[in-house]
Amino acid sequence: MSAPSHIVVAADTSLAAARIEALLRKDPHADVVISAAGELAALATERAASVVILAMSAPSVERALERLAGAPRMPRVIVLTPSPHAAWTIRARRRGVRAVLHRDAGAEELAAAIAATRAGLLALHPDAVLGASTPVSTPSTDAPVSLTTRETEVLEMLAEGMSNRAIALALKISGHTVKFHVASLLGKLRVRTRTEAVTAGVRLGLISL
Q1: For strand 136-137 and strand 144-145, is the pairing parallel, antiparallel, or unpaired?
Q2: At 112, is the secondary structure helix, strand, or coil?
Q3: How far is CA 14 from CA 11, 55, 63, 178, in A?
Q4: In the chain, what are the domain boundaries?
Q5: Which of 61, 47, 46, 50 is nearest to 10 (CA)?
Q6: Which of 11, 120, 189, 194 stands 20 to 30 A from 152 (CA)?
Q7: What residues form DSSP beta bridges with 53?
Q8: Long-range contacts for 130-138 (Cβ within 8 Å, ≥24 apart)?
Q9: 36 in helix, strand or coil?
């Protein structure tokens, strides 16, 4: 990463925070600060954090995301947790979680996750998507299915039965843009209908219900 990367780290224990900080200090471009849980939202705003790293159990992640919801701008969040699947929820994704790694992730995995989130991509431990590898292959082809963050959000909303108009209002985008994302999803998943897209997304581990 050539540009400075502002990172706020919050963890369940001081030992976990120290471990993450040590991994991040290997990157000369990383501006790292350790935050207490209660100061997370204020510090993320004050430091204009590009990434927030939560090294916590899934329940603690939920509480931390509640605090971050009060920030003026939702930061991109990376979660390190002993139970990746429990942390990869629709609510978490809507609150900025863009990567879920196992708590024992090494420096290279963490650096890759930071780079992915800054590029608008997802980075997931296989356990986060029910043991499926990431990226995932369809049964009919060896080509991987790779969705953008916005396409994943739209697919999740389709799974909730939301109309194009409701999706546009929720994401603050135009109806034309929603149609574009839906068409892109149908093409990438090689299906013809919204229902088939949701079914394929669940089967491939791209979303969970």
Answers
A1: antiparallel
A2: helix
A3: 7, 10, 18, 43
A4: 5-129, 136-203
A5: 61
A6: 11
A7: 9, 78
A8: 130/85, 130/205, 130/208, 131/205, 132/204, 132/205, 134/205, 136/204, 136/205, 136/206, 138/189, 138/190, 138/200, 138/204
A9: coil
CATH number of 136-203: 1.10.10.10
**pLDDT averaged per 10 residues, the chain (length 209):** 72 90 81 81 72 90 85 84 85 86 90 86 78 40 70 89 90 91 90 87 78
**Tokens, residue 202:** 């669940």
- Distance between terminal CA atoms of the chain? 34
Tokens encoding 136: 């995932």
CA distance 20 to 173: 36
SS3 123: strand
Query: Residue 193: phi, psi to the nearest 5?
Result: -125, 165
Strand partners, 5: 30
Do residues 49 and 62 touch, judged by C-beta distance below 8 A? no
Answer yes or no: same fold for 5-129 and 136-203: no
Distance CA 205, CA 199 (A): 10
Q: Does 3.40.50.2300 match the CATH number of domain 5-129?
A: yes
Q: Is the pTM of this model over 0.85?
A: no
